[in-house]
Amino acid sequence: MDDEPRAHKVLENYISRMPQLELSGACLNAPEALDFLETHPVDLLFLDITMPEMDGFGLLNNIEFRPFVIFTTAHSEFALESYEYNAVDYLKKPIPFDRFSKAIGKLQHLIDKGVSFKPEKESIELKVDGRPARILFNEILYLQSMGNYVKIYTDNRMYVTQITTAEIEENLPHHQFLRIHKSFIVNKQKLDTATDEMVRVGDNVLPVGKTFKKYVKEQINTANRRD
Question: Can you give the pLDDT at residue 67?
């Protein structure tokens, strides 16, 4: 997926020269790609990062499955962040065919090793009061950071566990949970209303941090387009 038609032509040409690849579709922006991926799950996604409306990372946070990803971008500063998404490779434009071919070789190596897509987890296991507790993602309303502790609010009760916000965020499905503040993460499925300043989850009104406003707005707008 790329917002530059010329880049599409280059990739389409390269893909046609690789017998192990078959082009399923091409999209110019994230909303278009989200609509396409709802009915056409793919095994491999060629993805630009800087795009209007929503960037490539935002798109990955909003899909319910995680295909192999090869980033294709004119910018090198996102390389480190891209590997947090288990990217197969990071190709900087303009992309020579031999470099493209090398990326496909990396992908083939992963497939030959038996690397596959991980099934979506439905819950998280944590220690609460010294005992293991299994909490279903669908039951979580929101999470509140308390230093090295996190409070987890569910439909039925509140859990307190000794873990950092960064650690627990790594174990939450990105398409379902949204960081709105340095201290709050919400379940997008439980949101009732949202503005630039706050979100409402049931009877709870939670603040939106200044540095998160733009990203929260993008996420909410995307969710509304998909509904």
Answer: 87
Q: How confident is the model at residue 221 (pLDDT cuts 50, 70, 90)?
A: low
In angstroms, rounded to a whole number, what is the distance separating the alpha carbons of residues 165 and 59? 22
Instruction: Give Cα 40 to chain centroid, integer Å.
Output: 17
107 closest CA partner among 43, 181, 37, 27: 43
3-class state of residue 70 by DSSP: strand
Structure confidence at residue 226 as a pLDDT band (50, 70, 90):
very low
CB burial string 42-70: b at 16+ within 10 A, e below: bebbbbbbebeebbbbbbbbbbeebbbbb
Decide which of 3.60.15.10, 2.160.20.10, 2.40.50.1020, 3.40.720.10 is the CATH code for 123-226. 2.40.50.1020
Q: Which CATH class is domain 5-112?
A: alpha beta
Model pTM? Answer: 0.55
Residues 185-199, mean pLDDT to the nearest whole number: 89
The DSSP-derived string for 161-209 is: EE--HHHHHHTS-TTTEEEEETTEEEEGGG--EE-SSEEEETTEEEEPP
User: Phi, psi (5° rounding) for residue 66?
Assistant: -125, 100
Residue 28 backbone dihedrals phi, psi, to 5 degrees:
-95, -10
Between CA 208 and CA 21 the distance in angstroms is 43
* Domain residue ranges in the chain: 5-112, 123-226
